[in-house]
Amino acid sequence: MTRRSSHILRAGIAIAIFVAMYAGSVVLPKAQLFTLTDVLILGLFATSYNILLGYGGQLSFGHSAYFGLGAYSCALMLLHVPGIAPPLAMLGGVGVAALGGLVIGFICVRRSGAYFSMLTLAFGMLCYTAAWKWRTVTQGDDGFGAFVPAEWVFPLIGSIKTGDLAQMYRVVLVIVAVVLLVTWLLMNHTPYGNAIRSIRQNEERASFLGYDVFFAKLVNYVLASAVAGLAGSLLVISHNFVSTDVIGIDRSTEVVMMTYIGGTGWFFGPLLGSAFVVVVGDLLATVTTRWQLVMGVLFILMVMYAPKGFSGVVRYLFDRSALERRRPL
Amino acid sequence: MSAAVLQLIDVYKNFGGVEVLKSVELSIPDGEMHAIIGPNGAGKTTLTNLITGKYPLSKGQLLFRGRSIDGLKPHERSRLGIGRSFQIINVFKEMTVFENVRNAVLSRRGVRLQMLRGITRYAEVTQETREVVEMVGLSADSERLAATLPYGAQRALEIALTLALAPQLVLLDEPAAGLSAAETRDITALIRRTMVGRTLVFIEHDMEVVFALADRISVLHYGRILVQGTPDEIRANDEVRRVYLGYRDA
């Protein structure tokens, strides 16, 4: 297959999946649309995580800080700024998350390996504790809700009813699809993405070739934080509720799990991982209250027997030659 | 003497109380090919690391074209026009030969973190990368992952990465380390061919390479420069013969 026809095939598959998912909003029952919305949002969050882990080679244990910063900022703006349009509140969430990423990243990306991981864990805990203790603003673990206006009016386009799950699902689908496309182009096809991958592979050589490693890592950290902040904003808008759930350590470990299960070696791997964790988690929860135990065992099995995650398995099945070339991101 | 490209004045380097370099004086004029030789542990690689910015000096002055560069980070020195290779192969192993060289070409052209244009759309980068790959004789292996190359080809890639920066000053740390006699001849010819118009400082144990390339030689011994001179002067020097070249009749 020529390069060109493989590009067309891949674009075709992507468009087909998008159309099928869009059509799903008409066909699927409400409960499943709700689950799918979560899959998309957490898939976006996991993708933001993989910008750090898969592309940058940086294992963070505090990524929920940015999901949470985005979530709380978006929710608080909707609550306190009269008449603010939800898209503007989402942008605010992205901005605050990016700013948080800039300040915290400025400290964390100076260290590599376990030191980086520990610093991110510490800052993640700090953000969680702030959200939990600062009750006058966040109402702690009780959380607060009912801040999204019942109807958003877009000039020229029409309006969206917040209560309509199918409409909310379509909004989330379009936003996530656009952001994924842009991020994929950025990470896989620009000098920027190439520089980040090069630095992961050989930081020393990259710096002797003239790449400013610290600056590049900081930019990448801010980018990952901004996308995580968008995911957090989308979550609070679709749930119309926010609590410390969005920022806790559980959230940080969940995203590590999703990303590893889906596979760090492929841009869309974390999406698969989030679909698996959300859907299988829901199914297991109908069978047993100890579903997290089962999930944990599954995670251990994946790490032991399929360390490249689902995307590694899929590649193995469909393209053995790719596996033999052992080509990472 | 023409203006020195590189000048070291009374340079010291300590690692936790151990003096690795002591009062090193070095002045490399424009266009010179300068070899640094000496026994293992003499401080040769440390000297390279000081010049390229891996470590700061403990004392002394380090001038590049008359300007002090001590305190500048490796990427800043690289951008000024100082390129280096490594004694132990240090490339992007999971990238192809082409992508490896392209990383250097992109950087030289200042296209490092651009986000708005596809990487394949920089036609001049692609063209220049191909030229460098061809110059070092790796065109046939252009699409191979660096990790899968034979050792000799990896050595050539090391030099290609340095060359692609088009540096004014090149530091090669044992470019022929671990190569067979035939491969050594190839790499020597490659260096001679590609370093025209540049200033070269290189470390090498293989005396054939040293005598084939060097205009001048500095002998480093226990952190001090023992002797400096032309290849003929070095060959004839009794002290050098005793401490390094190891002639039995010395």
List keywords for this structure.
heterodimer; A: 329 residues; mainly alpha; ABC transporter involved in vitamin B12 uptake, BtuC; two-stranded antiparallel sheet; two-stranded antiparallel ribbon; 15 helices; 4 strands; B: 250 residues; alpha/beta; 6-stranded mixed beta sheet; 4-stranded antiparallel beta sheet; 10 strands; globular
What can you tell me about this protein's structure?
The complex is a heterodimer of chains A (329) and B (250). By secondary structure, chain A is mostly helical. Chain A is 76% helix and 4% strand. In chain A, the strands form 2 sheets. Chain A has a two-stranded antiparallel sheet. Chain A is globular, with a radius of gyration of 20 Å. The model of chain A has no long low-confidence stretch (mean pLDDT 91). Chain B has helices at residues 44-52, 74-80, 97-108, 123-135, 151-163, 181-194, 207-213, 231-236, 238-245, and strands at 4-15, 18-29, 33-37, 59-64, 67-68, 82-84, 169-173, 199-203, 216-221, 224-229. Chain B has a 6-stranded mixed sheet with strand order 6-7-8-3-9-10, sandwiched between helices. The mean pLDDT of chain B is 93. Classes of the chains: A mainly alpha (329), B alpha/beta (250). Chains A and B meet through helix 7, helix 8, helix 9 and helix 10 of A and helix 2 and helix 3 of B.
